[in-house]
């Protein structure tokens, strides 16, 4: 297995999701009653640690009040939380710098994510067929374009959300290009988190893939080699919420900029959890 294709399933949430123990955290799950024949092997590592150690989660693993619908996957090129109820990623998080951007052709090999644990529905490209929605990358293809292998990783369906063409091909794409301009033109190191905002009973396509009502993105702009401890009240952050509708093109993408607090309120997730609390408070409240 290449490093690029290696995937670790991590997180208490994933175990909880498989076992269906709603509301429980791994650490609190009691062993099933009955005779114990052999002691279970110790876990290879505290499960949350794997993803938390990833450079792509350096700002913190986004967390909401319900771990049971966060199946955490480390895809090496990015990390993500898959929501089995929505059949969509909750969020995808990745580090981006100029070194990630090359001139490899788009692989366009959209495919099911074989690394989702058994028992969970695996979204296929067919779920999007004739739906009118694009397979909208969260971590963009171009952000991983230094080799065919790494580019191909962005085409797993767990990196996709149903996006209106007006969003995917215009305003969302323009923000993606703006982000790469920060990486290339200003030589910044960026931490990017993207996902969707869903109604309580969202419209679905195919097998039951929920259509987000909006897409969000958060960008933390740092210098090379910097991490969460280097974030200060003066650190540049950019966030946006864009409606997943035809009318999204009525305004430039920059008109969809919001504070990170607004994204947290709309999604229920706490982002940038590894940034000191007092700094989070300041930068998350910053209005564009
Ligand atoms: Mn796209
Ligand atoms: Mn936060």
Named at the architecture level, the CATH assignment is 3-Layer(aba) Sandwich
Average pLDDT taken over every residue: 87
Number of helices: 6
Order of helices and strands: EHHEEEEHEHEEEEEEHH
Q: Compute the number of strand runs.
A: 12
CATH classification class:
Alpha Beta
Radius of gyration using CA atoms only: 19 Å
Overall shape: it is globular
Question: What share of residues are in beta strands?
Answer: 15-25%
Poorly predicted spans: 1-37, 39-47
User: Class by helix and strand content?
Assistant: alpha+beta
Domains counted in the coordinates: how many?
1
Name the CATH homologous superfamily. Extracellular Endonuclease, subunit A
Distance between the termini: 44 Å
Short description:
The chain is of the alpha+beta class.
Give a verbal description of the structure.
It is a single chain. The chain is α+β, with helices and mostly antiparallel strands. It has one domain (45-284): Extracellular Endonuclease, Chain A. The protein contains six helices and twelve strands. It has helices at 12-19, 47-53, 148-153, 165-184, 260-267, 277-285, and strands at 8-10, 71-74, 79-83, 88-96, 134-137, 160-163, 189-197, 204-205, 209-210, 214-222, 236-243, 257-258. The strands form three sheets. Strands 1-2-3-4-7-10-11-12 form an eight-stranded antiparallel sheet. A two-stranded antiparallel ribbon has the order 5-6. Strands 8-9 form a two-stranded antiparallel sheet. A hairpin with a 3-residue loop joins strand 8 (204-205) and strand 9 (209-210). The longest helix is centred in the middle third of the chain and has 20 residues, at 165-184. The relative contact order is 0.14. It binds manganese (II) ion (2 copies). The site of one manganese (II) ion has 7 residues, from helix 6.
């Amino acid at each position: 297995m290449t490093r690029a294709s290696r995937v670790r399933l991590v997180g208490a949430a994933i175990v909880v999701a498989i076992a269906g123990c709603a509301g429980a955290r791994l650490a609190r799950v009691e062993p099933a009653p009955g005779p114990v024949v052999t002691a279970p092997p110790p876990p290879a590592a505290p499960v949350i640690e794997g993803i938390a150690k990833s450079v792509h989660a350096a700002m913190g693993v986004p967390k909401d009040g319900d771990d049971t619908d966060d199946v955490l996957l480390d895809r090496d090129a990015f990390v993500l939380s898959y929501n089995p109820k929505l059949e969509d990623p909750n969020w995808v998080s990745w580090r981006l710098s100029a070194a990630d951007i090359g001139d490899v052709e788009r692989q366009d090999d959209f495919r099911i994510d074989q690394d989702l644990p058994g028992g969970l529905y695996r979204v296929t490209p067919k779920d999007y067929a004739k739906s009118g929605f694009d397979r909208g990358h969260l971590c963009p293809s171009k952000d991983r374009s230094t080799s065919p292998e790494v580019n191909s990783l962005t085409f797993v369906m767990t990196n996709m959300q149903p996006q209106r063409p007006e969003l995917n091909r215009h305003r969302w794409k323009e923000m993606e290009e703006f982000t790469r301009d920060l990486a290339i033109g200003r030589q910044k190191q960026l931490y990017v988190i993207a996902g969707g905002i869903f109604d309580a009973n969202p419209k679905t396509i195919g097998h039951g893939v929920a259509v987000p009502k909006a897409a969000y993105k958060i960008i933390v702009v740092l210098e090379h080699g910097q991490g969460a401890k280097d974030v200060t009240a003066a650190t540049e952050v950019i966030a946006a919420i864009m409606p997943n509708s035809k009318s999204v093109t009525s305004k430039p993408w920059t008109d969809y900029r919001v504070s990170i607090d607004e994204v947290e309120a709309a999604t229920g997730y706490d982002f940038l959890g590894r940034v000191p609390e007092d700094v989070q408070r300041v930068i998350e409240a910053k209005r564009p």
